[in-house]
Every structure is written in structure tokens, then in C-alpha cells.
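User: Sequence for CBS domain-containing protein below. C-alpha cells please.
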Amino acid sequence: MRARDLAAPFPTVGLDTSALEAARLLAGSDLPGLIVVDRRGHPTTVLAGTQVLRMAIPRYCIDDPALARVIDEDHADRFLSDLADRTVEQCLPDKHGELPVVDPKATVLEIAALMARARSPLVAVVGGGDMLGAITLDALLDRMLGT
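Assistant: C-alpha cells for CBS domain-containing protein:
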């Protein structure tokens, strides 16, 4: 089985998309991450859902988890609202790793190796300069396990 056989339509976001909109897309579609595209629709990186959380959670709570415990539930439940004034670009890590993109002819093992190397829960399938879809870790594991 090749990447073209596993690729499925997948939502994308731009660098200027609201981080809150991206979070809603992640949650509403149960996605592990989003493919970020440039103005021409070409993948530039993957925004993992954990990166969106990292932007929303106060830094002091990340650095010292004990501090997160002292925030009451009403305020803790609203921390994502802080994303309204931020963009996807601001959620991306300063250093981008390997771009998780495969050719439509890539094998299951090539896809798995890229996901592992790039620490990405999904890869974009690009052929002829166009994004054909994406493969999630869940879909890849289902294929590898025969489920």
C-alpha cells in the first residue's frame, strides 16, 4: 500500500489563521494536528494540537505544574479564550523540524519512519506540487495492524 492509497482529505490552516479557530477545528474534528499551508496551498509545517495548548496555557503552569492546581476551575476552563488574539504562526515552535511530507508513492514504512523522525502525528501527501491529502498516525497504525 502506498501513500496515495492512505491519503484522505484533511483541513488546512494558514499562518494568519486565528489560533482559536485552529483549536476549534482540532476539537471539532478530533484531529491530532493541522497542516499549515502557505498562500499557494503548499504545506509548510504541521501544527500539533499540543503546540496550541502550549500557547494557551500560562507559562508558569508549564514550568511548575503545582501552580496549575491553585487556579480555580472557572478560570482554568477559560484559558483557551486567550488564543483569540493569536495566530497559528505564533503557536508554531521557533525551530521547525523536518517537513512531514511524502510523495504519493511512499510506502507504509517510509511514512512511519518520517512520522517517527519528525515526531509528527500526521504527514501531508504531495504530488505534482499539490496536496492530495494527509495520513494520520491513527490511520497508519490501523493499516499496519490490519484493523
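The domain at 3-145 is CATH 3.10.580.10 (CBS-domain).
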